[in-house]
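BUG: 3D viewer hangs when loading the predicted structure for this chain

Environment: internal workstation, default settings.
Expected: structure renders.
Actual: progress bar stalls at 90%.

Input used:
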Amino acid sequence: MKSKSQLFSSAANGRATKTKEVNSRIINLLINQLNFQKGGITAMAKRLVLFFIVSIFMLTITGMSHAAQWANPGLLVTPETVKANAEKPDWVIVDCRDIKYYAKGHIPESVSFGKECKKALRDPSARVFKDISKYEKLLGKIGIGNDTHVVFYGEHKVTDTFKDAHVSFWLMEYLGHDNKVHVLNGGIDAWEKAGHKLTNTPTIKPEKTFKATVVKNRYSSTEEVLQIAKGTKNVQLIDARSKKEYEGEDIRALRGGYIPKTTANIPHTDTMDQMKDPKTGKDVDTGYLSPDRVAGFYKNFDKNKRTVAYCQTGTRSTLTYLELRLLGFKDPANYDDSWIVWGNNPAKYPVANEQWINFERLKKVEEETKQLKESMPKKEEAK
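Structure tokens produced before the viewer hung:
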């Protein structure tokens, strides 16, 4: 049985083949319908009709052969790439899940930070460490040096740690680890669907020395975003939050809405390949990224222009950053402070379509929840 990743990768080829077959049938049908008998259309007319049909056919084939491609395909890797390189001394595979899930089963030769990557690589407020030496020590301890290829992977169906892999990717590029950091497309789910086994044997790599060379333009500050919002800096700004957050219906700070001058709202899960949930019938993301789908969301953007992504905590927007890199954007950045800072400072930062959190409603919900808990039968104490 083919894996989901194989099915997705072969889908475009299947559609192309089917389209060619249909076009061939149409051409044959049209030719057969032409009256080539004496008294029918003239030879010149026949040539013109045939030329028209063949031209359409060739244009269709040419269009199919120009499907979207990643500008930087090496940033995403397949399970086969991981399997082929996992044991090499200059490759480190990092499991971005919590240690308890790593202990139950992980990709062979992969290491763990001991906690989810986004928690290991950020401070308690979900911001990057100001002390870069913390990254150097943390990365070196698990066997990552400046010449090491690093693959991060998360999980879709259980722990929802895909975002941890994307956060790690952005941070490694922010630390200057260019051309050697990768994300496993589809995560550990793709590994299992490809028929590869997991292990519960932990891996410990020899420690290495990692020295960061921070690439400042991959980080967007609140000061820069304020310039964008005021219109004094011309930058493309992407809101990676959900549509409800963007429209102010789902408020996760003092205020809801969006940052002025935002170019587009592109919810981070929408860009992933979709499939029908057999239970609900709704489209749900699969955790896989494919160039055809992703490119469609950014087709109206200028790849040569600085592009900044934000969300609630600068986490979901790291997927946007990865996608921009895959598509070949020249100057992408992640706004690390994001809405948790912007939305909670009404005196400093303007908000478009501003919606304030309803504290009275929150208090009422808390009271209703308390009453519900009190009305529930208490469990008997264990004897």
